[in-house]
Amino acid sequence: MRVGVPKEIKTHEYRVGMTPAGVRQLIEAGHQVLVEKGAGRGSGLTDQQYKQAGAELVAKAAEVYARSELIVKVKEPLADEFDLLQPGQLLFTYLHLAAAPELSQLLLQKKITGIAYETIERPDGLLPLLQPMSEIAGRMAVQVGARYLEKEHGGRGVLLSGAPGVRQGRVAILGAGTVGSNALRIAVGMGAEVTVLDIDPLRLAQLDEQYGNRIHTLMSNAHNIEAVVRRCDLLIGAVLLPGGKAPLLVSRELVGEMNEGAVIVDVAIDQGGCVETIHVTTHDHPVYTVDGVIHYGVANMPGAVSRTSTYALTNSTLPYVERLAAFGFEAAVASDPAFAKGINTWNSKLCNQPVAEALGLVYSPYLQA
C-alpha cells in the first residue's frame, strides 16, 4: 500500500504523523511511504532521516495526497487541505468531527473512509490512540495554567505550591479520566490544593485511595461544580464523551462568579469544550479574557512538545497503520472490534453515533460487505 505522511498545517502544529522508525517498519514490510519534505522538522526529524528509513520525499502536499491510498496525519484536515483529499481515500488521524461540520460534509461527499484516532475503543473502554495525547495534554494543562496565573500574564499572581504561611493555589479538575488523572498527578506534585470531580464514584474511590488526604474528590453535579469553580484559581476541563460533543458544565454566569485573574484551561476544546465561554485558540494567541477570567483553548496543546508527542503518538498508531497497509481497510477492521469503532465516515455514511447526534445527521453503522 502507498502511505502518505503530509506536513501538518495547523497553526504551530509541530507534530508529524509518523517517525522515521515507523516509516522503516512499513518499508521493510513491503509498503511505499511518501513523506512531504520538512514534515518532521518541527519534531526534530530531518528529511535525511526519513530518506535513510526508505521514504520517498515529496516536495508538495498535493502530490502526497494524489499518490497515496492511505493518509496518516496528526490533526484533522483544514480548509486548505479539503481539495487535496482524494475521493475514496483512507484517512487516519484525529478527526474530532463533532466540532467540525464542514469537514464532516466533505468526507461524506468524497466518500472518504475517515478513521479517527480518538474513537478507536477497546472492549474495556480504553481509547488507546487518544490516551498518549491525553496524558500529555493533562500534564501540560497544569503547567500552562500555572504560567498564566502569574501576574505578568494577567493572572491572580498565585503560586500553586503556596509558600510557608501562605495558602496553596486551588486547582479544580472536571473529569477524572486520562486527562484529569494526569493533570491531578502534576498538580499534586506542584503542591496545589486539588479537587477533582467525576460522575463515576468508583473512579473517585480509586483516586482517593491513591492520593489519600492530599486531594479532595467530589461527585460531579451542578451544586458541587458551582461551589468548587467559584473558589478555584485554576479550572481544568477534562471531560470526554468519545466522539461526541463535550457536555456543557460551566455556564457563562458561573464564569462571571470566578475570582478575577483565575485561569481556565479547557482540554475538552477539541470536542467543543465544557465551559460556555471557551472557544478555540492557537499557540499564536493562546488566551483571551472574559469577565476577568483568563481562557486557554488551544486545541493542539501537545503540539507544543512536539518531539515527545510525535514519538508517543507513533508508538500507539503504528500497529494500526501496519494492519491497514497489510490487510486493507475491510480486513483490518474486521479483525478488531476496537478498530471498527474508529470508523467515522465510510461510503458517504456517518458511522459514529455520538458524532451524528452532535451534528444532527443520520447515523448509519458500518456494515462490512
Give the proportion of residues in helices. 25-40%
Radius of gyration: 21 Å
Low-confidence blocks of residues = none
The CATH topology of the largest domain is Rossmann fold
Shape by Cα distribution: globular
Please, could you describe this protein's structure?
The chain is of the alpha/beta class and 369 residues long. The chain folds into 2 domains: 174 residues, 3-Layer(aba) Sandwich (Rossmann fold), CATH 3.40.50; 166 residues, Rossmann fold. Helices cover 36% and strands 17% of the residues. It has 14 helices and 15 strands. The strands form 2 sheets. The protein has an 8-stranded mixed sheet with strand order 3-2-1-4-5-6-14-15, sandwiched between helices. Strand 7, helix 7 and strand 8 form a beta-alpha-beta unit. Helix 1 runs parallel beside helix 2 and helix 6 packs across helix 7. The longest helix is centred in the C-terminal third of the chain and has 22 residues. The model has no long low-confidence stretch (mean pLDDT 95).
Strand and helix layout:
Layout: E1 2-5, H1 20-28, E2 32-36, H2 47-53, E3 56-58, H3 61-67, E4 70-72, H4 79-82, E5 90-93, H5 101-109, E6 113-116, H6 131-148, E7 170-174, H7 178-189, E8 193-198, H8 201-211, E9 215-219, H9 222-231, E10 234-237, H10 252-256, E11 263-266, E12 287-290, E13 293-296, H11 306-327, H12 329-334, H13 337-340, E14 343-346, E15 349-350, H14 353-359
Parallel strand pairs: 1-2, 1-4, 2-3, 4-5, 5-6, 7-8, 7-10, 8-9, 10-11, 11-13
Antiparallel strand pairs: 6-14, 12-13, 14-15
Helix pairs in contact: 1-2, 6-7
